[in-house]
């Protein structure tokens, strides 16, 4: 064995000995620590454990959420044109205040003015035809009735003559030729009377149809004129609400085409009708109710608190970062002097109703197998116990089930897996 080999063997032996010594020392430290903890648990009264007494306390907790300032329903309106045309004048710009009914823009009207003139001429023609139908129909009806009356008298005389000739023929006073002539005159008079009656019926029917037709044409002309006047009124675009011009989407001289949706000219926002839409976690949404008070801040004015109250809870959920949240609308109370603007980020705190309940510090709770566990001192020894928790208020949490008043729990217990659940 060479001197170099012997030196290496001695070195490796020294290192191995120190590793074994270090392992033994570490094991000893763990055993001593565990023994000290267990020995402390065996002491009467648990005087060496840091514990807290389960007691009732008032909860005035809040639900925190992040949201944004939004216009209320109806407080933001996109104003557009209902007809196609060229923008002749645009009277508003971004940031301008407008009153309800104020003119915002106007379209060219030359084509519509010409159409209105045409519709008025058609209406005059229809009125003339209607007047003509109402004037002529009584005269024609009178003539036809007079013809019927005349032929009725002729037919009556012919019938009487025919009867007289028949009597004379029976007495051999009149000849057969005279009797046949009287019969022929009677038949002709009957035919003329029937023809006059049919003419009278045609006059009556025709007069009614002509009058009805003329009235229909008059009504159609009136409707066409009214439609043209309505289209003409659409060339003047007015503000449906009072507010501030938030955006302008067109310019003077542009041609807009109205299709299935009206082209937007401007967007108006009423800054006096704003609300906050806060996104509340599904864990907390059950605590929120309409009418609860809230306070929020915005990044633009971090030192100022704005008051509000819950006005609505939207039923549909929203997914944000794989977390289910619900939109809670807050009505803003008081005057805010135009400080708030749409889309400002808001930090919201919804104040829940105060309640009195059993409570322990949250640091006394551990989790095991999906359950909440605390360690209760029983005869001076810590024992694990499953509990059901409720509200949280800062460092405190409500105990709904599992603990009784005046029990003592460890403030900083070990991991829950070190003790079996009870």
Low-confidence stretches: 1-47, 416-422
Largest sheet: 6 strands, antiparallel
Rg, rounded, reads 51 Å
- SSE arrangement, N to C: HEEEEEEEHHEEEEEEEEEEEEEEE
Q: Helix proportion of residues, in percent? A: 25-40%
- What portion of residues belong to β-strands? 25-35%
How many extended strands? 22
Descriptive account of the structure:
The protein has 422 residues and is an alpha+beta fold. The chain has helices spanning 3-42, 110-170, 176-233; strands spanning 51-53, 55-59, 62-71, 76-80, 85-90, 97-98, 103-107, 236-238, 243-248, 255-256, 264-269, 274-281, 293-298, 301-320, 323-332, 345-351, 355-361, 366-368, 371-378, 381-393, 396-401, 408-410. The protein has 3 domains: 43-59 and 356-418, Beta Barrel (conserved putative lor/sdh protein from methanococcus maripaludis s2 fold), CATH 2.40.420.20; 63-73 and 269-354, Elongation Factor Tu (Ef-tu), domain 3 (Beta Barrel); 111-233. The chain has 3 helices and 22 strands. A hairpin with a 2-residue loop joins β13 (293-298) and β14. α2 runs antiparallel to α3 (176-233). It is elongated and about 160 Å long. Residues 1-47 and 416-422 have low confidence and may be disordered.
